[in-house]
Amino acid sequence: MITLSDILKARETIAGKLHRTPMLHSVALGKVTGTELYLKAELFQKTGSFKPRGALNKLHHLTDDEKKRGVITMSSGNHAQGLAFGASTLGIPATVVMPESTPDYKVQAARGYGAEVILHGTMKDIEQKCYELKEARSLTLVHPFDDPLIVAGGGTVGLEILEDVPAPDFVFVGIGGGGLISGAATAIKSQRPGTKVIGVEPVGAPTMYESLRKGAPIHLTQIDTIAEGLSGPFVGQLNLDHVREYVDDVVLVSDDEMVEAMRQILERCKVLAEPAGAASFAALLSRKVGVPQGATVVCVLSGGNVNAARLKQLL
Hints:
This protein is of the alpha/beta class. It contains 14 helices and 10 strands.
């Protein structure tokens, strides 16, 4: 389990290397949901998602030999870009294994940041391929979520939330593998225990939801969601432990609910979130949790990596 101290150290490590993303106050969407609504615009982070926070923190702690040999990861898109960006800034070779179904614009973005991209199978196949390449090439794994340094980096989002909105009643955060919510919830609950932290997953990829229900990390055999950023086929034990300790509830949203959330954020706030990034607001908009009238709510817009063709298809 990481602590607030670990997150504060992570902030020092990544300081000056990434954006301090804005907190948007949406009066229009607040009226729709009956809340005092704030949107943590992490989609304005470098590479278009929160992922470089954890990646840079992890890379900073590698030995010189590990940096020289290079790193590897598995990703549906955003972590691949985050790691590729971080590695390129430090001169570290990076390899990423992505599902063959990954949108081409996310593949090209990872390559554009300098990573070698290997397309392989589906989301449930890339873990084994990643470990095979790690051993064959003597690379260091930078896990997308099941790593204390990755979690601590993601936790810096939680620090910024409380700096901008000191007394939120609810914070909604999407869950893919659980790295972001593990860190953000730790940062928030360590400073403001009364704030309710709500995790949000797609109906078609309920990994954390089912892991909590069964009491142990599970591997999904089937994933069916438009939100590739929340389509992790498993969660880590580290992430499950943090969610058990610090997260008040995990709820599920449908693809249609995420698309409607995207639409309203775009129309009312002029901000483009990808489906995974809009999941947090989708849970609020579709009333998955009993949020009292007038409550102060923060929704984390975790990513905005969607191109024009994909947007046209979705909307």
